[in-house]
Amino acid sequence: MTKAEYMQHLKEALQGYDRSFAEEILESYEEHFADGIKSGRTEEEICDELGKIENFMKDIEDMMGDKDIHTHEVDHFTAIEEAKECYSGINKIELALVSMNVKVRPSEDNELHVYLENGREKSKYLQESISGDSYYAREIVDKNHKKGSALKGLGFIFLMGISCEEDQTLVVEVPSRLNSLKIKTMSGDLKLQEVWSKALTLETMSGDIEQNKIYAEEAILKTASGDIQLKDGKGKDAVLQTTSGDISWREGNVEEAQITTISGDVDFMGSKANRLKIKTTSGEVELRNSEIVDLNAATTSGDIEGTFFAEKLSVQSISGDIDMTLDRRGRELIAKTKSVSGDCDVYGRIHYDGTPDPTRHIVGYFSTISGDIEIR
């Protein structure tokens, strides 16, 4: 697909939206095409980086309309009395917000508590509902506020009638075990501390996601321009995705994880994974002091580097450099690297206890077209 075809398709998809909002998106995409062409990428490559317009529009509709949240038959009520501020028997929580920041932490009595950090009356800003063991909340939007929008790189920030004069922080104190925790916001930051949830979904357009000591069997974390930071995160299956924000995962332990970004950097430090897949377009990938059974990392123009253990790894780059030191730990490793124009340096470190290990080696498959390869 050419630039002209892509932009025409995008322009048609944006019909019906506020004119200034559509113009800012089109302008941002024009700038991305210009930057990509200057760096030597073709129009077709840039179109692939930007992704399908249908997916982009679905993200907008999901965030603006919250189609998949609160579509349940529930008993609605607003202005919940203070006496009912403690919610018993809740194990499923869904929040649909616009600008509120959110702090999630464990409660002292193993019940659900929801309140504003500044002590303001919650019912002015939040519509709440309960059905069985499920709690739902939606931020109230001031419809009289002038609608506007702003774009930050490829990450879009919607200012859609902010519901309050200043930033509000919603504090959610949760039980020790949850079946599901789902939070979607446009510009708010999400901070979670010591939370256990079987299923965890966090989505924000421009806000940051920060987690510390979190366990989730299935976790989905998405942001457009915000950063994602995880420390001591554990689980079975995790998906981390951002457009221009950075992703950092430290001291984690996961069975399978997929990390995707376009221009943001990826750091995987001091963590363990059975299967780890990392894909970035122009962002850099760094792995330090980590243990990975099966690693698959790919980048277009970013570099991939680090010192780590990986029993089996496949690393690919088009123009970025590959610089890895593999900790053998007394095992036979299989390493595959592929580069078009980037340099490739692969080093095999001595046995983990500091002594040489001549009985073990690395089975390597290395290829490049115009870059250099150095193996030690």
Order of helices and strands: HHHHEEEEEEEEEEEEEEEEEEEEEEEEEE
Most strands sheet: 8 strands, parallel, barrel
Measured between the Cα atoms of the first and last residue, the distance is 42 Å
What is the overall shape? Answer: flat
Instruction: Provide the spatial order of strands within the biggest beta sheet.
Output: 13-14-16-18-20-19-17-15
Assign the structural class, choosing from mainly alpha, mainly beta, alpha/beta, alpha+beta, or little secondary structure.
mainly beta
Q: What is the tally of helical segments?
A: 4
Question: Helical proportion?
Answer: 10-25%
Proportion of β residues? over 45%
The residue-averaged pLDDT reads: 80
Total strand count, please?
A: 26
The stretches of 5 or more residues where confidence is low (pLDDT under 50) are 65-84, 143-165, 350-354
What Rg do the Cα atoms give?
Answer: 23 Å
